[in-house]
Amino acid sequence: MTETQQTTGAPAADATGERGAVRGKRLIPVLFAVAALAYLLDLSSKLLVVAKLEHDDAVQVIGTLLQLRVIRNRGAAFGLGEAMTIMFSFIAAVVVVVIVRLARKLYSVRWALALGLLLGGALGNLTDRLFRAPGGFQGGVIDFIAPAHFAVLNLADVSICCGGFLVVLLAFRGLDPDGTVHRSGGGRRQSGSGRRPSPARSQR
């Protein structure tokens, strides 16, 4: 190693880049594993409640504070926008595409968890839009979790809300999907691992 390389630390930067690339490749399966788990839980719960609870009276879980009641929602939360079902389907499809493209630059475990929850939830509701009557991006989403004085939800909605909350929290803390952290003052950035770069050696 030359003295110039020791001073600039170029080889160390290259090694860090190689470690980041390996770490990123390992986190892509984490993203899709979280998404698959969220999707399968949502899908199985909907199949179960449709088979067992649809057309029946609401089941009280915690009195009237939390009930299980099956509805088919063609709109958004609280049944709003039922005439815009295709638009909601398009938005969900865009979210899926954006997350999949972002996965190539994903280095943060926390971002992998957040985006996995968003992806699984979006796919869960998009499946209903596509395959439930009347189909063609206009199907009714199965909702069945009914808290008192609130919208009727499903596990996909819960997954989306949790993922969205994590995204806001991570962005507020300055953590980027690529694993770097914004530092206050001067716009300096450091690795999400929290390791500081070693000081440059002075030339003798």
Topology:
Layout: H1 3-8, H2 10-52, E1 59-62, E2 66-73, H3 85-102, H4 109-131, E3 141-147, H5 155-172, E4 180-182, E5 189-191
Antiparallel strand pairs: 1-2, 2-3, 4-5
Helix pairs in contact: 2-4, 3-4, 4-5
Structure in a nutshell:
This protein has 204 residues and is α+β, with helices and mostly antiparallel strands. It is built from five helices and five strands, in the order H-H-E-E-H-H-E-H-E-E. A three-stranded antiparallel beta sheet has the order 1-2-3. It has a two-stranded antiparallel ribbon with strand order 4-5.
| Strand order, sheet with most strands | 1-2-3
Secondary-structure element order, N to C = HHEEHHEHEE
Q: What gross morphology would you assign?
A: globular
Radius of gyration, CA atoms, in whole angstroms: 23 Å
The total of helices stands at 5
Beta strands, count: 5
State the helicity in percent bands. Answer: 40-55%
Separation of termini? 14 Å
Please mark out the parts with pLDDT under 50 across 5 or more consecutive residues, or reply none: 2-24, 193-204
Mean pLDDT: 81
Strand coverage percent:
5-15%
Query: By helix and strand content, what is the structural category?
Result: alpha+beta
Biggest sheet, open or closed, and with what strands and sense?
3 strands, antiparallel
